[in-house]
Structure formats: C-alpha cells, structure tokens
Specification:
It is a single chain. The protein is mainly alpha-helical. It contains 8 helices and no strands. It has one domain (3-216): MetI-like (MetI-like fold, Orthogonal Bundle), CATH 1.10.3720.10. Helix 1 crosses helix 4 (85-110), helix 2 (49-61) packs across helix 4 and helix 7 (169-180) runs antiparallel to helix 8.
Length: 219
C-alpha cells in the first residue's frame, strides 16, 4: 500500500464522490415522489392509472438498472429525445427506485387495520381526518424500514453509472487501475468512499426508524 498514491488519488475520488452523491440523492428524491404518487393510485384503486402503475412496477423491478440506463442513454436519442448522462442517471435511478418505493408505501398504507377506519367513521371523522390522523402516521412508521433499505440499495446501484461514462466512484477506480495498475490503492479508496456514503445513511436510518415507531406503530 503506497500512501503517496493514496494522497495523489484522493482529490479525484473526492470529485467522484460528490458526483455520486449528487446523482444518488437526486434519484432517491425522484423515486420517493414517484413512489408516493403511485402508492396513492394503488391504494385508492384509481381506474386505468392503477393498471399503468402495476405495469410500470413489474417492468422496472424485473429489469436491471444497467439495461434501463442503456435504453435511456442510447435508445432515447434514436427516438429524438436527447438527455445528458447526468440526467439519464438521475432518471434511471428514480424510475427504478420509484417501483420499489411504491410497494413499500403501498404495503404501509394497507397495513392499517380496517377496524380502526370503521371506528373513526363511527366517531364522525371524515375521510380526510381519517387519512391524515390514522392511516398516514401508521403507514409511514410501517414503511420506514423498507424505505430506508431502498435508499441504501439505490445508493449502491450508482456503481453502474460508469457504463454511461459518468465519472462516479466506480468509473474513477476502473480508470485509474487501467492507467497506472495501482489496484490495491484504488480499490481501498473505493471501499472507503462507499463506506463514507453508506454508513451515515444506515446509522441515521436506524435512529429515524426508532423515532417514528411511536405508540407501537410499525411493530
């Protein structure tokens, strides 16, 4: 292990780390909004849209992110739609994550016991009050573990972005190994930066999960 090589490559990994974080969190944010919208469509059984959402979930959960990125990056220009590699990465991650977020949120919404809703109706609560004060708090608590697992999963999936020439952590490691054959140093830095990216999310996620499990919700 050459310390001088580590110090020399550190700025390059730092830039790649920031780019990976940027793509990852933008994609996660997009996936969450997609998941919320699609989960509501499934929960409220909106005609036509429900069928479209189900097809979307099956398509994106059963195809690799790499294939999806290739379609977005190389296929869309053939159809007349040109997007940058960065936008392609965010969109691809958002669409993949949205399919998983949808199922996580839907399962949380459907986990609320019908008896609670019937009891609220008996107390003269309207549908908006029932959803805001009974269904939604419990759904969020129940959905938190799979949502956090999906966040970590999506951050790790950023490792395939090198396939569309994005200078992420994986691209930087492979590029430096190919140029200078410093395999040990490059892989060591790669592991360190992925730990720096994922470990805080895991720790904060565990704390957040405990915070939202008030009154036994999600148990």
């Amino acid at each position: 292990m050459d310390i001088n090589v580590l110090l020399e490559y550190l700025p390059l990994y730092g830039e790649a780390f920031l780019l990976t974080l940027r793509i990852g969190w933008l994609g996660i944010l997009l996936s969450f909004f997609i998941g919320v919208a699609c989960a509501f469509i499934l929960y409220f059984r909106i005609p036509i849209l429900r069928t479209i959402v189900k097809a979307y979930i099956e398509l994106f959960r059963n195809t690799p992110l790499l294939v999806q990125l290739f379609f977005l990056y190389f296929g869309l220009p053939k159809l007349g739609f040109h997007i940058s590699a960065l936008s392609c990465g965010v969109l691809g991650l958002g669409l993949l994550g949205g399919s998983y977020m949808t199922e996580a949120l839907r399962s949380g919404l459907e986990a609320v016991e019908p008896m609670q809703i019937q009891s609220a109706l008996a107390l003269s609560m309207n549908k908006r009050q029932i959803f805001a004060h009974i269904i939604l708090p419990q759904a969020i608590a129940s959905s938190m573990p799979p949502i956090l697992a999906n966040v970590i999963f999506l951050l790790k999936e950023t490792s395939v972005f090198s396939a569309i020439s994005l200078m992420d952590l994986m691209f930087t490691a492979k590029d430096l190994i190919g140029l200078y054959y410093k395999t040990t140093e490059c892989l060591f830095l790669l592991v360190v930066f992925y730990i720096l990216m994922l470990l805080p999310v895991s720790v904060l996620g565990s704390i957040l999960e405990k915070k939202v499990r008030y009154a036994g919700f999600g148990e």
